[in-house]
């Protein structure tokens, strides 16, 4: 793959082609992307590939990044400001202009301040914002409105790591780089399904493992795709991470593996940390509490002790907990004790979830932070920021964190809220509480690219934001690397940058300091604040204001230099900074606490706040899947991303399935004290008994009742405020219906049938090429439902041709709808085993016309040829299914994934499916032995 340069206008060979380097908008890896825009007779054609020169990914992209071009259409966009809520069919929005919308927001905010005080206003923003957007909104809220009631969805994924870093290091920072994973001798992945959630970094680790003797440990209650190539999987019981790492700390101390020179010179607090972890001084007790075998614990402890270079990557499984901060600090403690920090290939490494969670931290995006890594409750820091901004006042106390913020909205303490680039009705725990809160709120503003989300329904003012490809600014990934997210598409006329909308409201309220012309001016101010009264690492005399976060070398960037800024890690202290100069922070043993020393933090294992009981005996764990992102408002538009895991589901152990009467592939209701939802069952021994797992992504736009957030326990970590997404007591039951079926409708007709679909008991929506697929179920009798459904479908006039096959005694009803020889829709209701192959039906919508044989096959619900089905999709890039991979493995006696790729191409593009292919190879080998 050749490097493609950034081109501002056109290539020399094709005047209708533009090539721009930018950054992926999904996970915290922060991959570089090369976007190519071609002007064709049919309009703009966009293609994407990995940027081979970007140091975060060197040309690699995962399946989500590879399919970014599928998500940039205008079909779901909000394209101009709108007024009025849309919480029912009777409620309709009306369009307006920006001037009216800005005037309304400014007046409402001022009225709230006058009548109820400054804390009656709140903002809830997102790690999807660019740093420049983040900076302006935080400046406006904390420096001009004078409240700290601004929090972010990053609270839900990395705030526990932030608090742990600040306690241990004195500053929120990740001390290492991705390159360290290529120079380490041991990688410990804690609470992270890296193969699915951060695939490009995982592939980088796997490549290092192929090339050298790299020992990989995965600590996770589930056996995930990440475990496929691990040397050691520790299936820890939920919530026992502090026990495990306190036990490791005790083991290292007892067996003489402490780096006593490092500890004495560069740390404080070891005695208290050892005392607080005394309950874990016996490894047998640790094994009993964690559910990990004694043999595996010994191996892990001894490997960590003996190997000098260890990287411990921790992510949501650690952070999303009522003990998340202590979990992270217990990990950091083991690195401080052994001096495995500040060295190449040795560090604790917090992996963030979103593309700009780190950038949000830089600008004080959380309710308890000030910009530039300054402390909100530090009076001197308050004065420093207020002086720099020249603002009339400054927030002086922490604002409300996400869960508390929406509780305050429901109670009426907060009268107005502005939500940006996030969907809290889906993503927050106890999500129906967020619904109630927004329903009661006096004034709700939402900035988004999507017109209809679960959250935009409650907007009194809906503002059209810029989408990926239209935005211009910067993001910072998990290794502190700042990258440009560059515009390569013309934005729709009325869509605006979030920083622009906030600046307009600020100016309308009479505030100066918001006359920004572009993102370049904002970035310079952000960089200047980072360097204001800050010193470089070497001088450190005015220690009280020192921060490693310092962009001094970028404070005088010209507009052209900003446009062409290469990816760079902070701190940036000069213009010609050596790329590797600050790859490993703390190399000199200098931390950000006033005395320059790190802190051991005393952590004590505690039981989760809500334990399983007779009413709710199972533990629900939630997380991401490989091909979807957050609440599917973008990835759900891509047919390629909707095939791997097409329906909302929950995994359950076979013994629990038997106990609770659950059958594979049937609908089940998952219920907690906070809510319930309906999912498809997946019976798997990859999960421990007593636990179930469900993905976070599905919303009310894509399924009738699959928002797992409304089931999730809303308890939070007392320090970070991060919710407990990994430990909710639940019960699971079969969800009984009279029948199940599948319905396909051609693109362009889906809105016409949506009301019909929503009249059924249960449905889920899946994007395919040229059509939308709906899985259906209902509690009414088959004849009653089919009569009702067919009457509602808008295909009754003479333009449409119906083919019908009904057999009520066999509980079957097939309908095929044609127009001018083109397939428009097909409906199949039948026993599950007799429903047609989904991929085969979808493939017929790609045909311009159907033959007589195709028509007969469609009506019969079965292909005329007897070719084998691909089975569930494994490789989304090349559309290779599980059955074909298994057949090829057996037929050709394949023993590794490279051979599979050579035969089928599967795994040969983004590589996201390689862990699953390895799992299939292992399964075939085990079957052969038996």
TrEMBL record:
InterPro entries: Asp_de-COase-like_dom_sf, BFD-like_2Fe2S-bd_dom, BFD-like_2Fe2S-bd_dom_sf, CT_Nitrate-R-NapA-like, MoPterin_dinucl-bd_dom, Mopterin_OxRdtase, Mopterin_OxRdtase_4Fe-4S_dom, MopterinOxRdtase_cofactor_BS. The keyword Chaperone does not apply. SUPFAM superfamilies: ADC-like (SSF50692), Formate dehydrogenase/DMSO reductase, domains 1-3 (SSF53706). It comes from the Bacteria. Keywords: 4Fe-4S, Iron, Iron-sulfur, Metal-binding, Molybdenum, Nitrate assimilation, Oxidoreductase. Its cofactor is [4Fe-4S] cluster; Mo-bis(molybdopterin guanine dinucleotide). Residues 17-76 form the 4Fe-4S Mo/W bis-MGD-type domain. Belongs to the prokaryotic molybdopterin-containing oxidoreductase family. NasA/NapA/NarB subfamily. This is Molybdopterin-dependent oxidoreductase.
